[in-house]
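Q: what sequence does this backbone want?
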């Protein structure tokens, strides 16, 4: 039986009464007070998530950028120091080995924050493809990571406005950390990367400033409302970026692993597409439920902001246009849904 890993904040979660669950090999808080109040706190004020289970890989050397340009779908030449980019690690068929964020620390040094379940696989994938002048290192165990998200996140932390996908070294209440203008909720906010020994103190200071602790349950409902894909559910090695609606992070004018296949899929048009939908009847869609016509739900939940079932799923290209009516098999009962334009929920507009 696998022993679950614990983040440096485990004792604090237990002290707060969090319900702990296994997730990607880690023992993580799924909720504290409850998914709905935690979700709404992030949408209306400010919440804090422990995301220290995420992986951190450093790529360094005079040819570090060259290595990453050959492996990642987006174009790193668009980045300057202090900027970050959402991108994909792809295989020969254009499938998504992982989706991640790459940070340019200097022209010869990059940081990749990768999904927890893919940390070891990503590291091995990249190490096997190293070129002279590049060095890939797994530094995950050296850092804690806190995501502070919500319309009042910067106000509560006393941080100035900064462009999305930028980052800088800084401090919060005397604790040095890397302040990243990134997140997984669709709200304004930051992700704070801190040496592992300072993670507990940083968590205490963020909570003392009024951020509500939030668990994996709210993180999932928040990301689904704004249609951020989840690796292992909505995207994976068997799903290509074009069909998943992630062609916008594929610089097809450069060469990277799987680029030829992705160009072909784009030119011919994908046979199926990942769409967002909203239930038209009282029902909650779940992963694996069938969609009439040959589709399947990949993520589904009850939206706390819209008070109805929502989801993502793959459907044939002919059924992918917004406004298309779908029928989903919800535990043996046909239930109506409608394809909608992404995102399902726009934080700036409200419910």
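A:
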């Amino acid at each position: 039986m696998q022993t679950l890993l614990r983040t440096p904040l485990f004792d604090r979660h237990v002290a707060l009464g969090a319900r702990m669950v296994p997730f990607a090999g880690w023992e993580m808080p799924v909720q504290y007070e409850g998914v709905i109040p935690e979700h709404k706190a992030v949408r209306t004020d400010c919440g804090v998530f422990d995301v220290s289970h995420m992986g951190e890989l450093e790529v360094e050397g005079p040819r570090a950028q060259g290595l990453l340009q050959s492996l990642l779908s987006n174009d790193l030449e668009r980045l300057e120091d202090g900027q970050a980019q959402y991108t994909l690690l792809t295989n020969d068929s254009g499938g998504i080995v992982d989706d991640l964020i790459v940070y340019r620390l200097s022209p010869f040094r990059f940081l990749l924050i990768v999904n927890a379940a893919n940390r070891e696989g990503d590291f091995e994938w990249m190490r096997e493809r190293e070129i002279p002048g590049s060095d890939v290192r797994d530094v995950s165990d050296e850092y804690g990571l806190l995501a502070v998200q919500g319309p009042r996140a910067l106000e509560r932390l006393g941080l100035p406005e900064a462009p999305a996908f930028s980052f800088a070294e800084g401090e919060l209440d005397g604790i040095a950390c890397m302040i990243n203008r990134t997140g997984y909720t669709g709200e304004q906010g930051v992700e704070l990367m801190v040496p592992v020994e300072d993670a507990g103190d940083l968590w205490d200071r963020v909570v003392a400033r009024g951020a509500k602790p939030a668990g994996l349950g709210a993180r999932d409902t928040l990301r689904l409302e704004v249609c951020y894909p989840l690796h292992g559910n909505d995207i994976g090695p068997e799903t290509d970026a074009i069909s998943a609606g992630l062609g916008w992070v594929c610089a097809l004018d450069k060469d990277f692993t799987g680029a030829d296949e992705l160009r072909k899929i784009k030119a011919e048009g994908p046979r199926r597409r990942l769409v967002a939908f909203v239930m038209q009847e009282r029902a909650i869609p779940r992963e694996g439920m069938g969609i009439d016509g040959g589709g399947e739900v990949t993520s589904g939940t009850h939206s706390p902001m819209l008070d109805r079932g929502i989801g993502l799923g793959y459907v044939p290209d002919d059924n992918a246009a917004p406004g298309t009516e779908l029928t989903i098999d919800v535990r043996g009962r046909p239930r109506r849904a409608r394809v909608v334009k992404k995102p399902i929920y726009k934080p700036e507009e409200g419910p």
